[in-house]
Amino acid sequence: MPSTSSSHRPRKKRKQEPTTSSSNGTVSLDPASRKEKPAFPLVAFFWPARGTSTSQWVLLPCILMTVGLFRWCTGIWPYSGFHKPPMHGDFEAQRHWMEVTTNLPITHWYFHDLQWWGLDYPPLTAYHSWLLGRIGALINPDWFALYLSHGLDDMDLKVFMRASVMVSEYFIYIPAAVICARHMAKTHHINSWESSVALTAILMQPTTILIDHGHFQYNTVMLGFVLASLSSMLAGRRLWSCVFFVGALGFKQMALFYAPAVAAYLAGACIFPRIVVFRFFGIAIVTLASFALLYLPLLLGTLRDTYRSIPLPADVILPPLLSTFPFELSEKAWYYPYLVQLAQSIHRIFPFARGLFEDKVANIWCAVHSSGLHKLNQYSSTSLSRAALGLTLISITPPCAIIFLKPKKRLTPLAFATTAWGFFMCSYQVHEKNVLLPLLPMTLLLASEGGMKAVIRAWVGYANLLGCWTIFPLLARDELRMPYFVFTLLWSYLMGLPPCSLSAYSSTAEGSGLHWTTKIVHLATYAAVLAWHCVEFFVPPPSNKPDLWVVANVCIGAAGFGMCYLWCLWTFLDESGLLIDLGLVESPKAEPGKKKQ
Amino acid sequence: MAEIYPTLPQCAAVATALKVLLWPAYHSTDFEVHRNWIAITNSLPLREWYYETTSEWTLDYPPSFAYFELLLSQVARFVDPKMLEIHHLGYDSWQTIYFQRATVMVSELVLIYALYLFVQSSPPSSKKQSHAAAVSILLSPGLLIIDHIHFQYNGFLYGVLILSIVLARKESGLLASGVLFATLLCFKHIYLYLAPAYFVYLLRAYCLGPRSIFDIKMINCVKLAAGIGIVAAIAFGPFVYYEQIPQVLSRLFPFSRGLCHAYWAPNVWAMYSFTDRVLILFAPYLKLPVNSEAVNSVTRGLVGDTSFAVLPNITPRMTFILTLSAQVPALIKLFLTPTWHTFISTLTLCGYASFLFGWHVHEKAILLVIIPFSLLALKDRRYLGAFRPLAVAGHVSLFPLLFTAMEFPVKVVYTILWLIVMLMVFDRVAPASEKARVFLLDRFSLLYIAVAIPLIAYCSLLHQMVFGAKYEFLPLMFISSYSALGVVGSWVGFLVVFFTS
Q1: Domain spans in chain B, listed from the N-terminal domain onward
Q2: I want to staple B490 with a disulfide (CB 3.0 to 4.6 A). Which of A170, A468, B305, B389 is the partner?
Q3: What contacts B249, CB < 8 A, 6 or more positions away?
Q4: Three-state secondary structure call for residue A38
Q5: Shortest CA distance to B485 belongs to which of B369, B389, B405?
Q6: What is the mean pLDDT of residues A355-375?
Q7: What is the DSSP string of A548-575?
Q8: Hey, which residues does A36 pair with through a beta bridge?
Q9: What is the arithmetic mean of pLDDT over B192-208?
Q10: CA dihedral B446, B448, B454, B456 (to 10 degrees)
Q11: Which residue has the higher pLDDT, A289 or B449?
């Protein structure tokens, strides 16, 4: 069939017009040829999509498929507690919660055996476990058989559990991240191409992938709610941000790290520039309603169980919280069972009786204690927790005060990051995995104005790579060394950071605003990390100090994180314009690296 | 010349990360096959290599590959000496897995180098197209599935093949190209299928003068013969010395196998078998004689003799004649116009012919078609039109290689991602052709590609939900018949393009 002469021409003929306006530092000029080139390898992969020729409807699915592949392939590796009786690990905890929630009446959930991974997360996690358990039981009921399924390590179960993390993440975290990146781009006037690059960098954060898909947890659900809350703030929907933040708190209590910043921002938004009482009441009512909604299924379940007179387990110990009530409670009162449930869930969620820190975590307390600088076990736990509370308050007051006085949308990620760093460094009962919380809002800075220029890229990369390194001892226990190396090297390669590249630190880097002290601190830390890996690999620790390498890791990590806190605080202060308002600073741009710990 | 982004090393770096993450993934018995060969070559003297039968996976690659395994074993002894023991059947400590997976990745550097040379050697006007083709081969889902999950060394071997093709681009490289191809044959004899194209091309372009076929260049003939002779002598010499050639050949060419592999490769015989199956249902109405013994044989998936119930049986001789006669027209054209592009086209057609009509073809052999075709697919839009259904069919047909739940998302998502990105990029960079295209084919090709998605969904999920474990041959049959349609369609399309240009 002969066709017309024009028919064999390409159907679409679009001229690729490279965008020269890069506000985000993704494009650099080759000094020799005066041609534009990608500033770091990640940008190179987006190079063919530059200009207007590639639709977001194609680009976005491709990004999501790529990051999804990396996530799923991490899942092929072992999880925490794989073949490690008697207690196994976090994988068993999550599986066990599915077993408990699907098999026991709802009033027993928070009372069931604490010793074997008792449920100690807020209700949303319990509902999530229940839903996943129900779905899983449809496939194979043996996976969640009461008591019989403890410590199960069936290969199909692994696939199901890994898939459940993926699905949860793609329902909550990923859409939230996509929308958040959009709002960031809108707030900072960044084109959608650069925003896609930033989104990919955020979604490829090594620590998040390794913890959720390697070690096994559902952190991204909580982080997704936080992102949703943040992006609602960026979009100016304060009430929705309350709802999402309660969702985050209701999934994992660790979201409390952000709570002061959220509260300060919302309070500030009601007062500055002028007092809006109506808004304040709206926020208060919506927050309370969200909490009510969060506990509603638990309370309705209690109503049902009371009605059917299902007793609590025989070995029940009533939560101590009940005895702190100012008046005598009658066990016969109609509200008594509900109070018991509420008190017990709070008792489980906040285990005040546990220690100052768990395992080895790179914060101030653990570093001070285990480095031998000052042994903390000579103090009572009350005085320690008071000290922790005091120090935490000191560390979070500046960021909260700034965001309260300057409740600007564009400042929220920095407020979140600084507050979370303060909590992570100083507060009570911190896990090494909690480093995810400060890392997320800090990494979001990549999607802000100038976010991929050398300064922010270097600092964000520093925090992420250091954060990933501090969880290395945990990953090594889970036999996840190889994925750790793959992800840290891949991410640092893509972002053009050490140990793969020094481009962000070279003097020719675009808008290289890195002060020489920053360069020295960063490069020294990277060198220390590399040296640590060599030593850890080749030299066994001395027999009387088996934790020596871990302690070294914790101390270097804590110092680096302290630096990250100070940098976030300084940048925050700088960006907020408070210094200019107070007449302390003349020039709008000051050097962030000058601060020393 | 400005760099084209992403560059090959950048793609290779990211691909490497993904491939390392796949180390603990499912691996087929080929993993044990290669471990066993490492053990055999390391612990036995050369004259026993082709007689060793402790494992059922006896050495059935040509000697150069055995030397390659011997080389690997020299490193393996430092990694985990236990993998070198012949009696450790099925040994897979994590050291062994890391080591063997790593050797696949290291040997793949040959492919990266070959692709780099391919882009370098292409003229500036087609650099962009060559770069896109090179990236598509480097990131090919076929290689990912077969090499890095299923486990084989195709990346390395195809690297050698591409290197040889690239060398043939310049007249000065023809000799090296021929010798390299001979070396490749000594590594894996499946490339014999492409040998006719090499033979004709080297004969016409190297051994005979450009003006007349009677102008025989004796020096070139001697050089080529000497080169190939040396390569063959190195590989087979020791076995000639021990008088083991018949034994080696019997290992290399086991003709006792059946027409179709356990899972039908998507070729003409898959369609033939499918027709036979369908005819069984209609035979009573059409009054056809049915061979009742054969009714249950094909679907049982046994490797062995395949017999047909209604249609006439096929003998190896018939497949051989069909293969050759499908290759001859292209070879004649190559002889008449010995250009580099015709050479690659002919290579592709030789691959097609042997894949479509060959005896006991594996589905993995589709790379023999896809990879040479990729080098050519961006010549103009007509080639691309023929390439599209092949890219879909060829890769979908590899899906049954991996049947474990964990690897299912990897193969499907990776392949879809590759198809979206590569076909989009190809569509953008392919130049308009000088001749008119047949438009209708594009519509069919689009329809064909669209059908792949419900088909994959049915075969991987719906079938099991509806029928459970019953009729388990159905999904396989659908996939291979569907893919066969695509491969045959793209073959016809390519034939049209080849003979009209």
Answers
A1: 8-241, 316-500
A2: B389
A3: none
A4: strand
A5: B389
A6: 79
A7: HHHHHHHHHHHHHHHHHHHHHHHHHHHH
A8: A29
A9: 94
A10: -120
A11: A289
The nearest CA of chain B is from the CA of A551 a distance in Å of 29
- Triad B354, B359, B364: Cα angle to 5°: 65
Half-sphere exposure of B319 (CA within 13 A, CB side): 21
How close B411 gets to chain A, by Cα (Å)?
Answer: 10
Q: Which residues contact B299 (CB under 8 A, 6 or more apart)?
A: B277, B473, B477
- Partner A contacted by B416 (CB < 8 A): yes
Q: Locate the chain B residue with the closest alpha carbon to A156.
A: B405
The predicted pLDDT at position A2 comes to 39
* Interchain CB contact of B421 with A (< 8 Å): yes
> Using H for helix, E for strand and C for coil, what is the string for A56-117?
HHHHHHHHHHHHHHHHHHHHCCCCCCCCCCCCCCHHHHHHHHHHHHHHCCHHHCCCCCCCCC
CA distances from residue B44 to A47, A550, B39, B48 in whole angstroms, order as listed: 53, 46, 8, 6
Q: What is the pLDDT of residues A178-196, one digit of tens each?
A: 999 999 999 999 988 999 9
Q: How many residues are there in chain A?
A: 597
Compute the nearest-CA separation of A222 from chain B (Å).
Answer: 25
In 3D, which of A592, A230, A266 has the Cα closest to residue A441?
A: A230
The residues, any chain, with a CB within 8 Å of residue A160's CB and separated by 6 or more, are: A136, A139, A140, A143
| Mean pLDDT over the full length of chain A | 88
Kindly tell me the sign of the dihedral angle through the C-alpha atoms of B183, B189, B194, B200.
Answer: positive
Q: Which of A63-77, A357-371, B25-39 has the lowest mean pLDDT?
A: A357-371
Q: Which residues, including other chains, have CB under 8 Å from residue B383's CB and lie 6 or more apart?
A: B376, B377, B430, B433, B494, B497
Report if pTM > 0.90. Answer: yes
Report the alpha-carbon distance of residue A202 to residue A492 in Å, rounded: 12
Interface test with B, best of A7, A47, A76 (most B CBs within 10 A): A76
Instruction: For residue A499, say if its preceding peptide bond is cis, omega within 30 degrees of 0.
Output: yes
Tokens of A67: 């990051």
- Strand, coil or helix: B378: coil
Question: Chain B window 234-273: which residues touch A at a Cβ cutoff of 8 Å?
Answer: none
Task: Please indicate whether, in this complex, the C-beta atoms of A8 and B430 are within 8 angstroms of each other.
Answer: no
User: Rounded to the nearest 5°, which phi and psi values hold at A488?
Assistant: -65, -45
CA atoms of B276 and B477, how far apart (whole Å): 12
Please indicate whether, in this complex, the C-beta atoms of A69 and B410 are within 8 angstroms of each other.
yes
Q: How does pLDDT run across A197-229, given as a tens digit for each residue?
A: 999 999 999 999 999 999 999 999 999 999 999
Q: Which residues pair with A38 in a beta bridge?
A: A27
Cis peptide before A351 (omega within 30 of 0): no
pLDDT of residue A130: 97
**Within B168-309, where are the H helices?**
174-187, 195-202, 218-241, 245-252, 268-286
Residue A212 CA to residue A221 CA, distance in Å, equals 10
Q: Which residue has the tokens 């304040």?
A: A280
Which residues partner with A430 through β-bridges? A357
Can you tell me whether residue A37 is helix, strand or coil?
strand
Task: Provide the shortest C-alpha distance from residue B10 to chain A (in Å).
Answer: 7
Instruction: Report yes or no: A27 and A66 within 8 Å, Cβ to Cβ.
Output: no
Crossing angle of helices B127-138 and B367-376, in 10° steps, is 160
pLDDT, tens digit (0-9, with 9 covering 90-100), for A35-52: 888 989 999 999 998 876
Peptide bond into A273 cis (omega under 30): yes
Check: CB of residue A591 under 8 Å from CB of residue A417.
no
Give the integer Cα–Cα distance in Å for A222 and B396: 37
A36-38 and A27-29 strand pairing: antiparallel
Q: Which of chain B's residues have a Cβ under 8 Å away from the Cβ of A73?
A: 18, 21-22, 25, 410
